[in-house]
Amino acid sequence: MKFTPTFDQNAGVELRADERIAYTPARPETPKPTPVVSRYFSYTLLAAIMAHALLLVGVTAYMSRSISGIHDVNANLEALSDYESRISEKISAQNVAVQTLINETNARLSTIRSDGETAIASSRETSQKLDELQETLQKLADIVQSFPSRVEITEENSTQASRSSDRQGSSLPPPPAGYRRIKGADGSVTYEKVR
């Protein structure tokens, strides 16, 4: 390719044929926007920024509420652990009270058992003594049965009794044990067994 020398208007230098130049075309100038397009674009951009800001404020409020809820849940969990510890303390106190009551009941039962064994031994001794007393009473009843149920004192007996009582200083002899004296309207005296 043959190059013809031309005059560079920009540099004011003449170029030779054997030199190569890199040509970069000049950028076309962008047309300046008209004021109407510029205002519409700025208002749209401002509205988008405001919407984005409002969205960020809403998200921040929601996250703040969520974090506050999480703190409330953590506080409730801590209160729940305190409540759990109070319940476990009360249960252990009740357990100690129940164990104490069981031990006291066992002690009372052992005392009652020993008292019962003592009472059984005492009742055996008492039953033996009652058997002996019953035998004695039976012998005594047999002796009393051998006496007549009514003893009448006739005039002969009463005159003999008055003579003997005059000697002894009393009018009638005392009644035997287990009998009572009955004086009749005619002056007769009888003795009756006391029941």
Instruction: Tell me roughly what share of residues is in helical segments.
Output: 55-70%
Basic shape: rod-shaped
* Beta-strand proportion: 5-15%
Largest sheet: 3 strands, antiparallel
| Helix and strand composition category | mainly alpha
Spatially, the strands of the biggest sheet line up as: 1-3-2
User: Count of DSSP helices?
Assistant: 2
Radius of gyration, taken over Cα atoms and rounded to an integer in Å? 70 Å
Say how many strands there are.
3
User: Terminal Cα separation, in Å?
Assistant: 175 Å
**SSE run:** HEHEE
Low-confidence stretches: none
* Mean pLDDT, all residues: 77
Describe this structure in words.
With 195 residues, the chain is mainly alpha-helical. Helix content is 64%, strand content 7%. The protein is built from two helices and three strands. The protein has a three-stranded antiparallel beta sheet with strand order 1-3-2, with no helix packed on it. It starts with 34 loop residues before the first helix and ends with a strand.
What key attributes describe this structure?
195 residues, 2 helices, 3-stranded antiparallel sheet, 7% strand, mainly alpha, single chain
TL;DR of this structure?
With about 200 residues, this protein is mainly α.
Give the arrangement of secondary structure elements.
Elements: H1 35-145, E1 150-152, H2 155-168, E2 179-183, E3 189-193
